[in-house]
Every structure is written in structure tokens, then in C-alpha cells.
Design goal:
Blueprint: E1 2-10, E2 19-26, H1 32-42, E3 46-53, E4 56-62, E5 67-68, H2 72-86, E6 92-97, E7 100-107, E8 110-116, E9 121-123, H3 127-133, E10 139-142, E11 146-150, H4 154-159, H5 164-168, E12 174-180, E13 187-193, E14 198-201, H6 205-219, E15 223-228, E16 234-240, E17 244-249, E18 251-260
Parallel strand pairs: 2-3, 4-6, 11-12, 13-15
Antiparallel strand pairs: 1-2, 1-18, 3-4, 4-5, 6-7, 7-8, 8-17, 9-10, 10-11, 12-13, 13-14, 15-16, 16-17
């Protein structure tokens, strides 16, 4: 069979920056091994698979090695594909996912996503985390999915050279580092998930579901401008509610093609 495939750079306004994602609309979901094989062949941080469900869509996300319960940048890219290519007369779409219904709405040249907030709790700083980072964190927080490590400043985040293999052996699927921002940004971050086949994710929407509630009370504001300072880099505007986080960003189309399965 043949299927359309779109590749986009998410959370950026220019190509070859942000986080690349593949979006594959299907009539029905293929078997899990087939979906995983396509994601591995794409070899991007995430491949998203869409199946129409009434006026909404069902959405699943795969890294090159595993299915994940939540992905921000591939949801942003999926929203852009629906609203720009599949149904350009619409201005919003709802995706039904493992993390519940997620809405993406067009807002000018950008897209806004409504995601669940992920609160975190402070945890002890272990020697395993210090070794994995190659740095001494100020504080460490965690939820069921990730560690969040607070570093001294934005330069410490940019210059960090962690041990990916050691991060992959931690008891969480990923680790993010963060610090107060510089320039126009309220905070900066990077995200590492080698256990999921992603040594460093360029720009991570789901990480901001944890980062935004972490920073909002510390900065005394509910709208924050964030930069993920990976080598590709990207920007996310976050708005924090009681138990939800709005994430706003741009997408750039890179490829419209067809795959054979």
C-alpha cells in the first residue's frame, strides 16, 4: 500500500531548526510492528500516525524504538498537516490519544495546543544523576516520566555535555535540564531521552508540560517564553492553567511525499 507522508520542522519559523517530525495519515492503524518499522525507517525523534474518527482524529506517536504516551512537537506538526493540507477550511482539530483528547488550534501563523500539566516533586540528588550529567545540580525534581534538573544559569544548560548511556540507565524515561533564561526568554532547557532512542530531542513539547508548571510560580507569571537550546534550537510560548498547559509554536513544511508499505 501507499500512504502520504509529511515532514515538518516544529517549534520554529525556519527550516533546518526546531524539531523534525513525520506525519503519516492512514485509513486505519497498521499493526504495531508495522508502525514501529515506519518510525524506525523515518529515523526522526517522532513519527505521528493519524486516523480519522468522525470530525476528529486518533493519533499515535512512535520514536525509532518505541511508542510514547505524549509528544508535543509531533502533535503540533499533526495539527499543521490537518489544518494546512488535509482540511484547510478548519481552524482547530481534536486528536484522541493515550493522554486523552488534545486540541490544536490555528492562531495566525502559529498553532496552540492544549495539553495536560505534569506537576513535579523535589527528589534527592543522587550520585547516578550527577554522574549522568557531569555536573552538580542545584535541585532535582521528578514525575513518573522524567527527571527535571535545575542548573545555575543558561550557559550551564547550553554547555552541558552529559553521559547519554548513563542517562539511559536512570529509572525515568528522560531527563531535562533547565535554568533561568537570558535575553527575551523566561527559561531555557534541554531534554535527553536515550532510553527512548533519542539521545537529545531538539525541542520537546511534552517536557514543557512539566517545565512550565515548574517555572510559573517561581517567576510569578502564567505566560512564559521558553527556549530549548539544543543545537537545532526552538521556541515555545507556554500558558499555565490549573491542570492544563497551552503550548504555542510555529511549524515549517519540509517534505510532502508518499511511502510504500
Amino acid at each position: 500500500m501507499r500512504a502520504s507522508l509529511f515532514q515538518l520542522d516544529a517549534f520554529t519559523t525556519r527550516r533546518f531548526a526546531g524539531n523534525p517530525a513525520a506525519v503519516v495519515p492512514l485509513d486505519r492503524f497498521l499493526s504495531d510492528p508495522d508502525l514501529q518499522a515506519i518510525a524506525a525507517e523515518n529515523n526522526l525523534a517522532e513519527s505521528a500516525f493519524l486516523v480519522r474518527d468522525g470530525s476528529d482524529y486518533r493519533l499515535r506517536w512512535f520514536t525509532p524504538t518505541t511508542e510514547v504516551p505524549l509528544c508535543g512537537h509531533a502533535t503540533l506538526a499533526s495539527g499543521a498537516v490537518v489544518l494546512e493540507r488535509l482540511e484547510p477550511t478548519r481552524d482547530r482539530v481534536v486528536f484522541h490519544t493515550a493522554s486523552g483528547p488534545l486540541m490544536v488550534a490555528r492562531q495566525g501563523a502559529k498553532y496552540v495546543m492544549d495539553f495536560p500539566a505534569r506537576p513535579s516533586q523535589r527528589v534527592p540528588t543522587t550520585e547516578r544523576i550527577r554522574t549522568a550529567l557531569g555536573a552538580d545540580p542545584f535541585e532535582v525534581y521528578a514525575d513518573e516520566f522524567n527527571y527535571l534538573v535545575l542548573l545555575a544559569d543558561a550557559n550551564a544548560v547550553r554547555e552541558l555535555a552529559p553521559d547519554f548511556a548513563a542517562i539511559g540507565r536512570l529509572d525515568r524515561g528522560g531527563l531535562m535540564v533547565t535554568a533561568p533564561g537570558d535575553g527575551p526568554f523566561d527559561f531555557v532547557s534541554r531534554y535527553f531521552a536515550p532510553a527512548k532512542g533519542i539521545p537529545e530531542d531538539p525541542v520537546t513539547g511534552s517536557a514543557h508540560c512539566m517545565l512550565a508548571p515548574f517555572w510559573a510560580p517561581r517567576l510569578g507569571k502564567t505566560e512564559l517564553r521558553a527556549a530549548q537550546v539544543s543545537p537545532r534550537g526552538g521556541e515555545v510560548v507556554c500558558r499555565v492553567g490549573s491542570d492544563r498547559v497551552e503550548l504555542e509554536g510555529s511549524c515549517v513544511f519540509y517534505l510532502d511525499g508518499t511511502i510504500e508499505i
